[in-house]
Amino acid sequence: MLSEAAWQAVWLTIELASLTTILLLLLATPLAWWLGHTRSPLRAAVGALVALPLVLPPTVLGFYLLLAMGPQGPLGQLTQAMGFGTLSFTFSGLLIGSIIYSLPFAVQPLQHAFEAIGTRPMEVAATLRARPLDAFLTVALPLAAPGFITAAILTFAHTVGEFGVVLMIGGNIPGETQVVSTQIYGYVEAMEYAEAHWLAGSMLLFSFAVLLVLGLMNSRNSRLLP
Amino acid sequence: MRALLAVGAFIFCSCTLAQSAALNVAVAANFAAAMQEIGAAFESETGHRAVLAFGSTGKFYAQIKNGAPFQILLAADSQTPLRLEREGLAVVGTRFTYATGRLVLWSKREGFVDGQGEVLRSDNFRHIAIADPKLAPYGAATIEALSHLGLLARLTPKFVQGENVSQTYQFVATENAALGFIALSQVYSQGKIARGSAWVVPSELYRAIHQDAVVLAKGRDNPVALEFARFLRSDTARRIIQAYGYEG
User: Fold this and answer.
1) Are B134 and A71 within 8 A, CB to CB?
2) Which residues in B1-95 belong to E strands, given as ranges?
3) pLDDT tens digits for A2-22?
4) What is the per-residue pLDDT across A130-189, written as a single tens digit (0 to 9) for each?
5) More confident residue, B191 or B233
6) pLDDT of residue A10
7) Residues of chain B whose C-beta is under 8 A from some C-beta in A?
8) Residue A73: its chain B contacts at CB < 8 A?
9) Nearest-10 Cα torsion for B51, B56, B57, B58
10) If both were cysteines, with which of A109, A114, A170, B209 could A36 make a disulfide (CB 3.0 to 4.6 Å apart)?
11) Which chain A residue has its CA at the smallest distance from B136's CA?
12) What structural domains and CATH numbers belong to chain B?
């Protein structure tokens, strides 16, 4: 069965994925709204930037993060000036890495949801004298609920499956940066295949369950969408 | 039609080329630089090309067990070749130590690491990078040396672990860790430490890191594989190996 170290990695992974999901939804909502409605010439460039983590190998992303977070890197200089020291090998560093890594998985479903709603419901709300923020909170947000659910599940699951970035900036510290995926990798490398199987098997079941729930929800929600 | 023929001829040629160069060598990551030079020397001397794959010994073990097409393994330890031999995946009697690794404490900053390793007793650093002792022989040697020095308990909270010695080097080279224990071969060239500051850990503090090579079952009937194993023990190869800071 799972060892104590494996359980610690499981809890840390859940903590990392939950925090990433919460912070990322807060960040992604205004960004997705802007991408869904702007006519700015910057739209294509920003959209491409957001999608970049889909295409880049995670180790590339991780390596640049390692360079950026180091004492000579721009992020490292900033965090040192603010008195936090450097972020590599810390939970906060992993959190920042995960937010960047999962960005498209939160922004894109939200953007599609906002685009599907269109401008019409917001205009109607405006004629009923709702202020823009009020209209956004009471009209757009509830209509985009399926998009939020999709974004949250995808972000959570994608963070759980994150490997390359964690490997590059984590340093494999138990209870701080040692998550399930790096733990499995360690077991396989150390030829401890029994431990690896337990953890990897649980991960497989978890991933399947997440995607199954997502699929079931999508087929139910598609009736709610216009 | 002519273009199609040309494409066909090209594919045919590249297949036969690939067949004549069918020596696939799996090489431990810490030996990458030396191996490239040895591979080039082997090719110019014998005309045979060795296709090199670099990675961790643990990963190679899993791949070889599952039918990977390697004919020779240059491991980072001596246990893995022995294990492969016992499991019938390597040719009995072909194991030998091709290099003995040396451990070094290294920092990218000039003057940060002193010649006696006294820096380890100071509080001048937040992280110290080591290779994962469960996975990498250099990591296991680090733990052994630190416990001999009586510093293990004190330094453990500052450990950041690379999954192999290449990643450990990366942590130190990007200065995310101020210093770290790596393989001398990674920072050694032309008879001296090429950059930064270093303390070569005295060899009596840890058991020797014997890196063994073995001819794998898939190389049993391949004369080029046996020739390569012989070449690895030649004076040419030994000179290259020593120039990279290994005891040859």
Assistant:
1) no
2) 23-28, 50-55, 72-74
3) 888 899 999 999 999 999 999
4) 888 888 888 888 999 989 999 999 999 999 999 999 999 998 898 899 999 999 988 888
5) B233
6) 93
7) 56, 58-59, 61-62, 126-127, 129, 132, 134-135, 159-163, 167, 170-171, 174-177
8) 174
9) -130
10) A114
11) A190
12) 2-100+209-243 (3.40.190.10), 103-200 (3.40.190.10)
Instruction: Give the single-character DSSP code of B59.
Output: H
pLDDT tens per residue, range B38-52: 999 999 999 999 999
Mean pLDDT of chain A: 90
Interface of A with B in 70-89 (CB under 8 A): 70-73, 85-86, 88-89
Are B99 and B38 within 8 A, CB to CB?
Answer: no
**pTM more than 0.95:** no
Q: What is the pLDDT of residues A106-146, one digit of tens each?
A: 999 999 999 999 888 888 888 888 888 888 888 888 999 98
List the domains of chain A with CATH numbers: 4-221 (1.10.3720.10)
B89 vs chain A: nearest CA distance in angstroms? 16
- Nearest-CA distance B12 → chain A (Å): 33
What the block records as the tokens of A123 is 């205009």
User: Which residue of A67, A167, A172 is in closest CB contact with B174?
Assistant: A67
Question: d(Cα B230, Cα B124) in Å, to the nearest integer?
Answer: 48
- H or E stretch covering B161: strand B159-162
